[in-house]
Automatic annotation (TrEMBL), chains A, B, C, D:
Protein known as: TetR/AcrR family transcriptional regulator
Matching Gene3D superfamilies: Homeodomain-like (1.10.10.60), Tetracycline Repressor, domain 2 (1.10.357.10)
Residues annotated to bind DNA: 33-52
Keyword set, alphabetical order: DNA-binding
Domain HTH tetR-type: 10-70
GO MF annotations, alphabetized: DNA-binding transcription factor activity; transcription cis-regulatory region binding
Length: 198, 198, 198, 198
DNA sequence: CATGAATGAGTTTTCATTCAT
DNA sequence: TATGAATGAAAACTCATTCAT
């Protein structure tokens, strides 16, 4: 039997992406099997290869796409905002909202870099650095203008991103706190550590 | 032929632990093969089973041992320190020093919880909560005494630990900054966000 | 979308034959994949089936066609030549020239009989025997007439064909020797072993 | 179940070699499956890998071993024989006898060079050339001493080997002719074409 | 305590072929 | 005639684990 009645290539492709992301999230890249993926999608394992080129490419595409979209969305959010403090505020809010709504993508992005082949890893690492550099520049400009008192711009960048990204580890959409509250709390934690001593 | 000349049981066991940790760190639990482990140790795969009971048990033991030692060492570091601010300072320094010197253990601990079987995961998660609770209590007492202005004790706990633990992702012992400097920087970032507004 | 602009059925069929022969020559029948074939031709694998019925049939057709043409061409070359010695000379020259110019066909013919399904193999084997019988008869008549001293007609037939066909294994069109020289050399080797002792 | 009662590593290894050779002979390298091989040997497919490193290595080992043994045996056969004519006689007899008794090895050797990876192919091709060079030197010395009238030493070498090797294509141990007769016939065919014209 | 041979289930990937469009 | 999506079987190879020796 060739094409199943009602089958649709682009639907299948999307189903593969969705199930693939979920499985990598749940079991890790190495722990996820294409058999399982195929079964969830409802096709034979070999049929996956009409839509992906390789298991590795599936992961790579996820990570590249995630980082690309993330940075683009950040740039859009920051557009037109000038003062370093306001930009920092915007970054915090943007980063949290984006990460809270794409928890699987984020988790995979952070935990599966290791599973990329060296070439691919270099690409994704580069994209990450692009993103981090946005925050780094905000901190640097805030320091220059005297609006912020940053102990070490590079490290503060890493530390802030680590802190904000940490929410994906415990956030529960049905939990005690909503997005707005979480944002407010982190704003205080982050900005408080960066304000000039009066 | 049974035992190779010069072989030594406890040395072998230790070699398995060391190489096992490294391999899980590099490839992840699923991505690490007992064959590779055996080869590094210099024995046949089957011989591993004289020293471990199961691949899963190897991981589980790592995580339990790590968490147990970590919490014990924290308690020792905090012993005799009374004021919440001093206890917070101590926590920050302890956590950073411990994590900077055991980066592989820490990374494995954070990324491989997912690979534990449910029962085992529950155990390790419990141990983690024990550790986190130490910081939570410091923040709670600081709040009560008015020494700290913590927006949300639970979330601040997660956020601080995420921030401090983030160092294992980029720290380079041969890098620009030594441990002491890193500690000082993080102290400012963390404590600055928690001080009462004057 | 059905037919690509500029596509042409018979051109495609011919391209399939050409690329198919080359691929079987290079990788063997089992080692050649219809996917590769389709890619070389520039169509999708499924589209091959508008031109071939089966991978096996593709091979079978090659071999049948080759053997048929070979024998027909031999008969044409021998037409009108009467004396056994002259016919032997003609056979040697014909066989070498034909094989030197169709090296891929010949190689495939000799190495892929094994890959034919039994029925098909029987057909091709029969065609081969037809061809061999031409030489066998020349040797038999030469023996009868006293023009040749053949130790064993059957075996000499196999031996001569093996010897002459061997050229496809090493002949290089840009090499030291041209066709004419190769023919002359083999004529001496073959005929020398068959002349009556004076 | 680990080791089957009565299992024996070296017996298994030998069984793999024997069955492997047969399967490659029957189906070609590409057409032979390790599943089938394992089944014949009576073990699981994965267990093959306790004895071979790779399918390719299995083939490579066959070919290297065959060529090495062949050349060594030839050297032994030629030892002490001085006159070119006698050496040629010895070569013919040796080559035929060896090839008649190892028909599978020979066939595989001739048809599966193509299936070797380039590096491996280079090795085996080198070994083949070593063997051919033995005959080449006999013909060259025979020419120098005037005992032989060889039209072209290089080509005659190829032609003779092709002719003699051709026997593996049709020889039937239960057939009309025994080894001795086949040798006698080929001796006439070969030597007849090389004798000086009286 | 170690080896070497085995299991049985699993891995990713490839293949010839089919068929609705 | 061609495409693109599918099948179902198979490929080579890996894996954690077992156990007689």
């Amino acid at each position: 039997m060739a094409r199943k009645a009602g089958s649709d290539g682009s639907k299948t492709a999307e189903a593969i992406r969705a199930a693939g992301l979920r499985l990598i999230f749940e079991h890790g890249y190495e722990g996820m099997s294409l058999r399982d993926l195929a079964q969830i999608v409802g096709i034979q394992p070999g049929s996956l290869y009409n839509h992906i080129t390789t298991k590795q490419a599936l992961l790579f595409d996820f990570l590249v796409e995630h980082m690309t979209r993330l940075t683009e969305a950040l740039d859009a959010a920051l557009a037109g905002i000038e003062s370093p403090l306001a930009r920092l505020d915007t970054f915090i809010e943007f980063h949290l909202r984006y990460h809270l709504t794409r928890r699987m993508e984020v988790f995979v992005n952070n935990s599966e870099l290791r599973s990329l082949e060296p070439q691919n890893r270099a690409v994704v690492t580069g994209l990450r650095r692009d993103y981090e550099r946005r925050l780094e520049q905000i901190l640097a400009e805030g320091t220059r203008s005297g609006a912020l008192n940053v102990p070490d711009v590079t490290i503060a960048t890493f530390a802030i991103i680590a802190q904000l990204t940490g929410v994906v580890g415990w956030y529960d959409p049905k939990g005690r706190l909503g997005e707005d509250e979480i944002i407010a709390i982190h704003r205080q934690l982050v900005v408080g550590g960066l304000l000039p001593i009066p």
